[in-house]
Amino acid sequence: MNAALDIGVASGFTLAVPAEISIALMISALLFTLGIIGFLCRRNMIIMFLCTELMFQGAALAMVSFSRMRMDVSGQVFVIFILTVAAAEAALALGLVVLLYRRRETLNADAWSELGES
Amino acid sequence: MIHEHSIRAAALAPELGWVGLALLLPLLSACACALCAALRVKSKAPAIITSLALAGSFVIILTAYFAYTGPVEVPIFQWMSFQWGTQSFQSFTADFALYIDSLTLFWMLFVTGLGTLISIYASEYMESDRGGGYCRFFFGISVFLFSMSALVLGDNLVMLYLGWEGVGLASYLLIGYNYERPSAVAAAKKAFIMNRIGDLGLALGIFMLWANYGTLQYSELFAAMNNGGQSSVDWDLSVIPFLLMLGAFGKSAQIPLFTWLPDAMEGPTPVSALIHAATMVTAGVYLIARLYPFFELHPEALATVAWIGGSTALVAATIGMAQYDIKRVFAYSTISQLGYMFLGLGVGTSFGACYHTLTHAFFKALLFLTAGAIMHGFAGQLDLRKLSGLRQLPGWRIVSWTMFVGCLWLAAFPYTAAFFSKDAILLQALTSERGDFRFLGWLGLFTAALTAYYTFRVWFRVCAGPLHYEGGSEGHHETPAGHETPVASHGTVASSVQPAPASHSAREGHSVFHPHAPRLAINGVLVILAIGALLVGVPAYDHVFAHRENWAQSMIAGSSAYQGAGIEDAHAGHDAHQATILGMDAHTGLTVVGSTASIGGIVIAWFFHLRNRKAADQLRAALMRRYWIGWLPICMENKWYVDEVFHVFFRLPMWVGGQILSFGDRHFLDGVLVDGLAKIPLGLGRLFRPLYGGALQGYAVTMAGGIALVIAWVTWIWVRGFN
Q1: How far apart are CA B486 and CA B506, in angstroms?
Q2: Which pTM does this prediction carry?
Q3: Could you tell me which CATH number the domain at A19-106 has?
Q4: Cα–Cα distance between B585 and B593 in angstroms, integer?
Q5: B700 CB within 8 Å of a chain A CB
Q6: With contacts defined as CB-CB under 8 Å, which chain A residues touch B694?
Q7: What residues have CB less than 8 Å from B703, skipping those under 6 apart?
Q8: B700 vs A40: CB contact, 8 Å cut-off?
Q9: Given phi > 0 = left and psi -120 to 50 = alpha, else beta, which region is A17?
Q10: B635 backbone dihedrals φ, ψ, rounded to 5°
Q11: Please, which residues have CB within 8 angstroms of residue B618's CB and are 6 or more apart in sequence?
């Protein structure tokens, strides 16, 4: 493959990205997009929560890739933290989902729309 | 007469601090009355406390009078003190201190004396309100006496202003004593607001005095005035007396601010007697007398005072002639007599004005209290057409004859005290070098005849003639226990409902209504006041018959109020003995003319209101038939439409202005500015509202879309370059 992906035609500002890294970046973008699409299209709160996790993983993968590209571990350290936060957040969010389910006897996110005006 | 024609400097006398008790005692009694009200005391305790406190004040003032040697300043405590620099006009001091000179004592003697007598009278008069407004009433009286004492005794104009506002407040509270009655509330409000207009003038006058002399303490003011003053502003000094005058005219009910006083008769009668006849309304006279040197600096100001006083005397007298309510007749006579006092001040005899204040205080308090006794006994009946021949009614003789004394005094019957005090004023006016003052003097003489007429119109109607009466409509108080006519509360309503037959015989009157005669407190006070009215003539007799100096004159002459006392080049009061009236020596001439006016008025009143009562109505009808004079009785009966003129020229424009402002407020300020501005965020919100529908995905789409837009924008800039 092309050794470098050339962005920034007019600016002359180029960013050289190795091929293997670019694949990882594409996968990360794919994960993030899948997460967004899933979050927007599904109504089940647990699935929606999983989709946010998917977006997290996309972002984390991008970080790992850039860290690898720049040979700088701080990105990877950051990812460790993200995973920790995500785990804690998963525990909280699932607890919330259980509570919400008890209130309405459904997991449909549309059951919770009082805040809106319409 | 030997007077030093300059104000004696006041000595500092802290050892006279006990005179401050004259201020403290009414204040304490006010607190005690408030406590009684809080404890719901049903006894006569508030009346007793108030009477004792006021009697205490009187004794203190009397002691101070006998100990008096010369003007003194008595510091009580430090009150206000500001300093914002080291030069003059950069500090302001108003201590709570007393300025005691002979004018102060002269005023305080009758203020506290009459206050004591009238609170004793009120203890009986108000007794049907015991447990109700009784404490409130005496609280008001105590506050009034405190304020009046502060006004008179105060050492500076700030204390005078404190007292000035305090008496206004007490007057407001006591006029509105029957606060359930809308007319009383309206009258209280009217009195307060019209006084405020005057007070504005007084306040501005005090500011101007400070701005010009840098002090508000009387002794320093007079000293500064002798040095010509050193103004911190370049305003015209001559505006000061005019501003002060406005305050005096408001408080003393002179043209154009006089319409509140007749309405103030809504208050209980002791209040009318004390506040609206004897003492408070003379505060204006006191103000001008106290600051007389400043008025003398500006002859045009004194001329204005004279003209306002003279014309008020005439106008009020003509209105008083055509009123049927006894208290209103007396109210207009008060305005008229106050007009004489201002005339006296204006033409340059502060002695005459102050002496007339003294005599007027006694006989007018007496007249009001007799009217109050009648009102009290006849269930609020004050219409002089519905009362007649009371002197024949047992138990009413004292009221009738003390009223006769009061009427003689008000009519300035020859050789009564009021005759001399009024003469002192008219003599000065008639012998003046100024033609307009001489004209005012003749006008005053004519007014004196009118006064005699309307005064005796009341007495001949109410106390003389055949006996008949009707009770008033006032839902009268329950009969006090042990009263001689236990059925007094019956028939009150009955007699007021049935239309009054033209000739109502005594027997018929008795069958429907039983008046209850006054008892000891009222009768006793009436007799004491009648004796007092006789006694205030003693200084004048002393002067006329024994050729000694009039006591009142010596009191005034020793103070700043004496004409010519304030300025160095004192014009000696020109000698009245050289002037002549109708070709006679001025004194003799005035005695003759004044007596003729007074007796003539009484004879006319006797003819129309005792000998042939129908003639009065016939005369009125005859006047009404002639178109060229028919307006006169109508105008007089309708008080010259002054209220209506005020209504059209002041109230109506203000009402219209208020409506316009209110419209502007509602539609421009509220409608356009407040509500209109609020509509902008509202509209913006409506624009973005669909984005926040409440569904979770909605928010997510908004967020994702927003981020996408930001990314797209950044990318576009990046791709295009920054240029």
Answers
A1: 19
A2: 0.76
A3: 1.10.287.3510
A4: 12
A5: yes
A6: 113-118
A7: none
A8: yes
A9: beta
A10: -65, -40
A11: none
